[in-house]
Amino acid sequence: MRHLFLLCLLVPVLAAGQQRKPDRKLQQALEEIVGRFNGRAGIYVQHLKTGAWAAVNADTVFPTASIVKVPLLVGLFAKIDSGKLGYHQPMIYRDSAKYGGSGLMQFFKDSAATEVSVLAALMMAYSDNTTSLWNQQLAGGGAEINRLLEQYGFKDTRVNSRTAGREEIRKIYGWGQTTPREMTTLLIRIRRGEIISRAASERMYRLMSKGYYDEQALTQIPPYVQAAAKTGSVNESRSEVVLVNAPHGDYAFYIGTKNIKDQRWEADNEAVEMIRTVSALLWKHFEPRSDWKPTFRKETF
């Protein structure tokens, strides 16, 4: 009877955390998808309610590209939560901070008034490079953000760009680096209110649920289902991290790629198509009774 009692206590704990073994059906399906990919790919997925999970190359280090902006956001909110920055603190944009690529602030006029909340919102919604570099500076720089990540137990997720001592590794991974397991875990912990503080985590999650770049994994999730997500794209890598607030329980996943053969910036890029394929598989796996069908078409780009 005593053993039965202990077992009854243990079962809910396992369900709330993580199953000992991966979901066999999901694991096999993901391995087949990754096996067909022309490049290196890694995936980690976890269902928060049941603890079901699957992993393919989940501890392999991949370039983050713009997904590094999630750790930058964490660093920024560490300063806000400590009172060293105000969320609505006024700032002045100088065009000397202009940086090309994605984003809107590069088009602001010199001396334009803005505030910290705008910098955070533009970084997460439009993957704004100018505000991202500004936020990295406001957060204390890459080294300070990396120390924070280490404190939270992330051993591979790091900011490389503009971070002293990481110049050589930046040549390999670019602005930042992570693993599928770690970035998925970071987003799960934000969802659970465990990063910086509950209030900071909730605000970060709100910001991550309002992204403009929604034509990869999110096309395979109903538009009326909230999801927090961040994409990252450079020539040799296309990746995405997503947490879906699905009807039958949240699930999170990260799909990382590198050394991709297809480096075209087209809607049917192989890595982008794989991200959509995995996202569709996960939605059907965790929401098998859903009758929703994606309406996304490549020609809408």
Textual characterization of the structure:
It is a single chain. With 301 residues, the chain is α+β, with helices and mostly antiparallel strands. The chain has a domain at 18-60 and 209-301: 3-Layer(aba) Sandwich (Beta-lactamase). Helix content is 39%, strand content 16%. It contains ten helices and ten strands. The strands form three sheets. It has a five-stranded antiparallel sheet with strand order 2-1-10-9-8, sandwiched between helices. Helix 2 packs antiparallel against helix 10 (270-286), helix 3 packs across helix 6 and helix 8 (180-191) crosses helix 9 (198-208). The model is unreliable at 1-16 (pLDDT under 50). One of its GO terms (biological process) is beta-lactam antibiotic catabolic process.
Topology:
Elements: H1 2-16, H2 24-35, E1 40-47, E2 53-56, E3 62-63, H3 69-81, E4 90-92, E5 113-115, H4 116-125, H5 129-138, H6 142-151, E6 158-159, H7 167-173, E7 176-178, H8 180-191, H9 198-208, E8 227-234, E9 237-244, E10 251-258, H10 270-286
Antiparallel strand pairs: 1-2, 1-10, 3-7, 4-5, 6-7, 8-9, 9-10
Helix pairs in contact: 2-10, 3-5, 3-6, 4-5, 8-9
